[in-house]
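User: Please predict structures.

Assistant: First:
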Amino acid sequence: MAKPIYILNGPNLNLLGLRQPEIYGRATLEDVAEDCASLAEELGLTIRFHQSNHEGQIIDWIHQARTEGAGIIINPAALTHTSVAILDALNAFDGPVLEVHISNVHKREAFRHHSYVSLRAEGVIAGFGTEGYLLALRRMQTLVVA
């Protein structure tokens, strides 16, 4: 069996569907996980879908992906703008990395315009709601199968 795609989610995404639905929509993270699992099956991929409010846990999953994963799709949430540690972990990963944001971060506060993760990512998808995860998964399929 092929190596899985890691889909990693950062702080507060466990509140998706409840927290600021006018920005993030009404879909829950469980909805996103189910949609990703369905699409992954259709594309012939396997996924490992995780969320944590703790930076160290996210870094541990990135380290795990170094040997067990084919690629990483990451929505680091607020850690996007602050975490050099996540950037360093991603720089130690050899496969493709795609960055996802539910909202268009460039229409929001100025501090959200900077991303450490973008320095490593092959691509960034922002502003497409939770559909961005599916777009990233489709792109990841072309990157890992090609």
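Second:
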Amino acid sequence: MTKNSIKVLVVDDSILMREVITCNISKDSSIQVVGTAPDPYIARDKIIELEPDDLVLDVNMPKMNGIEFLKKLMPQYPLPVVVVSSKSANVFDALSAGAVDFVTKPDNKNIDVDSFIKELIMKIKIASIAKVGPPKSAVQYQHKGERVKKENAIIAIGASTGGTEALASILKELKGDLPGILIVQHMPPVFTKMYADRLNNQCQMEVKEAEDHDEVIPNRVIIAAGEHHMKLVKENGKFKIRSYKGEKVSSHCPSVDVLFDSVAEVAPPENSMGIILTGMGQDGAKGLLKMRQKGAYTVGQDEKTCVVYGMPMVAYNIGAVQNQLPLDKIAKAIYKWAGDTLR
């Protein structure tokens, strides 16, 4: 245990899970479990008493579930929270309520405690440097409905920690009349399909999980599938995507760099836009630089509105970002670029 160790409170109604999590994450010298709680009511008191740096929170609990607890906690006592959940769409409700990230619980069919703990430790460390607070409402941008040339144009977006909410806030502001949008959000399998379906119900544009040979068409958003890279190709004069399993690139699969590299190689640069959003690490920075060097328009989310200013910072520092913007200005930038460049 180090002097500046991350103080963690573990909240889970299962005695077994509390012991498994506590025992294993404590083996990391930078983490100190200062307490545990079986439900949100006890957790509330322990947060005040122990002043933890991070919270590991189960979603499904008696008395009050983790999502309701988050909604009550974040406005009064904002803390970095990593949610532990089964494979369920309710993790996105937890992220909307203010959680930084989530880890999938091992189930009886696939008990891989080592991988679970390794991922949990990594996300606790990322959460400890994340910006947290009550969820902010995006300022709605009113698109004036200019007609733009949408054929043969591409918008590519990459994101990681904090990206699910950042992407949702942007996509909800897009009312259509735009080129096809390709997105890589670091997320495990199953959840990418849940996330795409959720956004498809919330947004005016079509949103779907990537399937191999999907056509990139105006007003369609394609999100890379978990554990599958997504790249842009041109087949018979049409833009399509290839979705395939492969080795990690820039420590990730799907990788933002794979997407951005392919856009730089295949799409007309004057008809290409690349956007890098909140996230830890450097995935996407080199690919965005390649897009900019070819002549594409590139945007990075600014430090103030990032949950984790990692990927956009690296991209900015190497000269890949042409315009750095707060999250609530990015939808407007998309329409301005589409209107000015693609009329």
